[in-house]
Amino acid sequence: MFFRPEFAAYRDRIMEKGAKWIGFYTDPAYDESNPDQPYGAPAMYVRKKFSLHKSVQKAEISCTALGVYKLFVNGQEIRSFLEPGFTDYRKRVYEQTYDVTSVLVGGKNAFGACVGDGWYTGNIAMVRRQRFGRYPLKFRACLRLVYRDGSEETVCTDASWEGFTGGLRENDILNGECRDFRLPHAEIFTDAYAEAPAPVQEFAVDVPVFAECCERVELCERLAPSFLRQSARGALIDFGQNFAGVVRLCLRGGRGTRVRVRHGEMLDADGSLYVANLRSARCTDTLILSGGTDEYLPSFTYHGFRYVQIEAEGDVELQSVAAYAVHNRLRGTGSFSCSDALVNRIYSNTLWSMRSNFVSIPTDCPQRDERLGWMADAHLFARSAMYMADCKKFYRRFLLDVSDATGEDGVPDTAPYVNFFGKNNAGWADGAVILPYLHYRMYGDQSIIAENLPLMERHIRAYMATADGGIRCKSAYGDWLSLGEETPEDYFSTAYYYYSLTLYLELLGVLGKTDAAVERERGVVYAAFRERFLAESGRTACDTQTSYVLGYAFGLLTADEAAANLRRKIEENGMKLATGFNGGKFLMPVLSDLKMDDVAYALLLNEDYPGWGYSIANGATTIWERWNSYTEQDGFGDAGMNSFNHYVFGSVVEWMYRYMLGIREDEAGFTKVCVAPHFDPLGRIRSASGSYETKLGAVKVSWESENAGYTVRVECPECIPLRFDFGDGEVLSHCCKRGEHVFRIGCGRPAEKPQPRVAAVQAL
User: Fold this and answer.
1) Mind telling me the catalytic residues?
2) Cis (ω within 30 of 0) for the bond into 754?
3) What is the pTM of this model?
4) What is the number of other CB atoms lying within 10 angstroms of the CB of residue 640?
5) For 18, 257, 339, 356, which has the most beta carbons within 10 A of its beta carbon?
6) Does 47 have pLDDT greater than 80?
7) Residue of 617, 542, 525 whose CA lies nearest to 583
């Protein structure tokens, strides 16, 4: 349950005047001077006892932490995960509100929280501990009681609370947890628990606290295990799907027996767990058994994995095992399927990679010591994500993190900013304009522009300050992970510079504003780009696939200049792509816009290296970071950076919706819709169907090949004006009945019968 606006004024008053930040040192001897330690001090348990002598009508707890917390009332865990989430704790923290009416009892009660390191003082990426704060961890809460007689009461955090340590001995988001079942945990939060407490302190904390504004991270899809190996002392388990999540275990063994639960995405050639790509992240949970039946579900960590290896020091009985995917629970808004199993698997893999990396912020990967909000990853994938799920609140909140991280020197490579990596890098910093632009186009809410105008202005001014005669030369990454072709830094940076200026001016126009200096600079950049990077033949000086893709997508090359050269480059490469993160996002839309659907479909359906199908032929259930994360010839790619769950190349899903199905916004927010499907010219894909739920209702499109053409069906709410565009196809007939449009399109005869897909793909 989210916080309701009608309680806002009351909540602000009690939190400012009543609730204090509290905490204590759970291990005064712990040495924080070394930030390279894998774990910190034991988790902090803070508790308050109180009594109820009147009938309660409503009870709500509002709380937050510097750290991450689990809330308990009368020994019962109030379900949440990794709250208050990943933010720059120096700039903002979010507060959650829970309805706890049903778990209170007449007479004696107790409530409180177990607080772990989280992103506040735990390990973050490769930059280690203490990025945002130091011990002690801190907690703030207020219980509001509304009695049936109309009176009210509050119980808030202050120095009267009690502190404890318990069974959670170690916790780290990257490295995992150690839980000692011989020590108390949930029972601490009961009136009956009477061990001597530690005193807690009140702290003055100068950080703004905001009400939660986004769907929460939750335990979502449940995955069942398949045992690859099992013995009295452990097991190797395959959950059949790479994902971000946790494992729930119920097991029994001798008192003090240590059980190690290790997580990995792949198996080595010898069948052992592959963990080299995790780098320093241990991704291991350790259990110390009580001697009875112990049930374990991690509290303050999550892992990216498909396989789990359980190893015990003594015999254990594994009574039950299940896994749960962890992600922000966003409402699905899109659906897609087609006649080709490979393409359906690409879509499914992308959806799972999105789930895996939407954990509080849009991360790059869920497994290794990184899990950061890389700006390029976020904006390159955003439109695909917005088709598949309602991301309106999610990206709006992330843009607050970007704003918090951005100064006059420009937009950082990652947000929240962890005082590492660079700023003002082309293809990354541009997310400050691209994300608000895509958000506005998909959802039609102009307030996203106004909210982010200061952010966009800082970004544009930082770009202008580092340009020379319209040319920029600052990109630490370029077309990340391209293959065999390097698009030069100055070409790449200047192209993105022009694109940012263009989108910024368009968004200003939506608000009825303009910027003459930016208008002039845009003209300067265009002229400088064409003079510096184009030959008379229309070729770019660097002559890479990405140079033509970005040049055309950003409005710097004409269709004639881009089309012939892009086709040539792909043909010279054996009809294979060579684009990286940035070029790959725009590749398929540009091909279709340039009337090269034959090439687009060939790349989509390719099962050889490199391409989407190659990973699937090698068992991928998510999108890989690299085209060559694994190859049959060379095995695993460079373990220094090799994620098997990285959504960026899944940006092809945007093309599936906008071109294959043809569902596009003619006006921002889909208040007017264009339906413009692009069929497979060779007839290998013989049908496709899907939908996108706009704020005015669902737009559904399906098509299938029949005889010498196609039948297209479109369903759309009558309140949404429609425009149809079938390209060179001839409309043979059109009828509309009860809101459903049916077209017969003549497109020339598709292939009589497509060649069957290989067996491995057919079986998916």
Assistant:
1) 370, 625
2) no
3) 0.95
4) 9
5) 356
6) yes
7) 542
